[in-house]
Amino acid sequence: MLARAKINLALHVTGQCADGYHTLHSLVAFADIGDEVFVEPADTDQLVAAGPFASAVPPLEDNGLSKALECVRRWGVDAAASKPLALHLAKYLPVASGIGGGSADMAALMRLLTGGRALTDSERSDLLTLGADVPMCFAEQPAIISGIGEVIEPIKVLPTPCVLVNPGVAISTPAVFKALTSRSNPPLPTWSDPVSFDGLVGYLTTTRNDLMDAAISLAPEIAECLSALADAPFARMSGSGATCFALMESDSDAVQLASDVQKAGPDWWVQATVLR
User: Fold this and answer.
1) Residue in 35, 126, 133, 210 annotated catalytic
2) Average pLDDT in the 48-74 region?
3) In terms of pTM, does the model score above 0.90?
4) Active site annotation includes 178
5) Which residue is catalytic, options 6, 35, 126, 210?
6) Is the pLDDT of residue 196 over 80?
7) Would 91 disulfide with which of 53, 64, 190, 219, CB 3.0-4.6 Å?
């Protein structure tokens, strides 16, 4: 099961709740690349990690995948899930990188174990207890997100070539929110359902990522990535960072930009992909 990278094309922080959670208004889309999750019967529950970022994957007892598995078992939707399982995770996305890797992994495991069926209202509420990004990653479709992540309004986004760049710096999301100077900002402008690349870029130029300045203050390498993407039609940081993205008009343009950026940052993680 592919756990596709989640890209925040725009992210507005609109307030803070009494319990400390922040309310957001965000536009998300999903890339054609991601981690991969599959399961098989085992004698005991276990996590087997592989892939270029396997060394950064915490053990099962400290991994969100264990919470996702426990959640599905409480639902009692799959007899196989009640028995010990080996969870296999091929980790292709950098960790703590603002593209939903851990949340996407949990959501992919839950889709796999539930057969992709529609969830009940109670089950959808359970998703949010696993993390604000988990409900949107479970839906895995372009959407306008509001509240603390529980309100998902599906939208249409044209397939858009994209380049993802991460400087190899893991960033703590709580630390980024702590560094915010403004926690009550205007929401997204009304979504105009753009039907062209120029229309999408035009809309995005009227939006923000309110976490970007705070993230750059913690990891100046983000600014270096954005500088390397400066010639793209549109570039921005995703989520709480440190991954940045650039939108391109064609697949060939994305491949060329990825090649150029990799030369500028030989140690960076750089991927050309498509948002769908």
Assistant:
1) 133
2) 96
3) yes
4) no
5) 6
6) yes
7) 53
